[in-house]
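Colleagues,

For the teaching module next term, I've prepared a clean inverse folding example: a structure given as tokens, and then the sequence designed for it. I'd like students to try predicting residues themselves before seeing the answer, so please don't circulate the second half yet.
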């Protein structure tokens, strides 16, 4: 019974977010003439559609996390549906709001299908920084609309994958909640090696662990090429209270930190140990 209620809850939040996304996109277009979902890079990369598809499906993500629903095939199908419908819902919203200026609305004069035909073949492209208008693109408008459709779908799939990889308590199948985070920088390789090799070896409830987690390089040292960043996240299961630490390592390249996924690791904290307050002090 509780499962059913939670499934209905996730769907309700998902559908509400879908409607909200459509309304926001349509209203922004109505008032500013800027259509977010048609925004693309290199003409065909549908960045705006990806974002809108992910936004339309995001309710399923947050709803599932909140209500501890695992990403089932049922949720996947719903995410695909809302992502696929979103584009047409946006077209429809635009159609209903299109005022012809002579006291008539477009919806009084043409059917949605005819409107869509005209709309797609009269799509204008805005290219480059100056948003140079290329004029109507004819049939290419349908191709563009299709790439945007794919963008919506991929945005939805992205949301589902994010939900699938979200850390879960093995025992209770509930999503782990983030309890604390700690970021440390290491400018010297040997400092990092000492930290990385020992921090998971010492007892997590002992003083050495706290000392290692408190380690900080000199205050005025900035990240330069080769600086290593360790981000340690403490997560806990809201049901059985089991805790888990995960550590992600990044190295500063030219302009930014880059992930070193082979160094990512997880540590399960023995039952009964609560590291929340220890993390707060470091
Ligand atoms: Zn648990």
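(Answer key — instructors only)
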């Amino acid at each position: 019974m509780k499962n059913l209620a939670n499934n209905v809850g996730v769907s309700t939040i998902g559908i509400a977010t879908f409607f909200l996304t459509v309304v926001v996109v349509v209203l922004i277009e109505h008032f500013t003439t800027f259509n977010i979902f048609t925004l693309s890079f290199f003409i065909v990369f549908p960045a705006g559609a990806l974002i809108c598809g992910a936004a339309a499906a995001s309710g399923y993500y947050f709803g599932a996390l909140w209500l501890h629903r695992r990403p089932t095939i049922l949720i996947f199908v719903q995410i695909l549906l809302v992502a696929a419908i979103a584009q047409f819902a946006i077209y429809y919203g635009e159609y209903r709001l299109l005022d012809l200026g002579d006291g008539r609305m477009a919806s009084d004069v043409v059917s949605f299908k005819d409107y869509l035909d005209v709309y797609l073949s009269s799509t204008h492209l805005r290219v480059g920084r100056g948003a140079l208008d290329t004029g109507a693109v004819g049939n290419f408008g349908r191709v563009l609309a299709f790439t945007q459709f794919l963008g919506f779908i991929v945005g939805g799939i992205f949301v589902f994958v994010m939900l699938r990889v979200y850390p879960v308590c093995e025992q209770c199948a509930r999503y782990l909640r983030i309890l604390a985070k700690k970021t440390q920088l290491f400018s010297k390789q040997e400092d990092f090696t000492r930290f990385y090799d020992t921090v998971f070896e010492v007892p997590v409830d002992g003083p050495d662990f706290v000392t290692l987690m408190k380690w900080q390089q000199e205050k005025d040292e900035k990240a330069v090429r080769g600086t290593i960043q360790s981000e340690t996240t403490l997560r806990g299961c809201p049901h059985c209270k089991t805790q888990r630490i995960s550590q992600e390592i990044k190295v500063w390249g030219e302009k930014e930190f880059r992930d070193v996924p082979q160094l990512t690791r997880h540590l399960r904290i023995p039952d009964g140990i609560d590291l929340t307050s220890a993390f707060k002090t470091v």
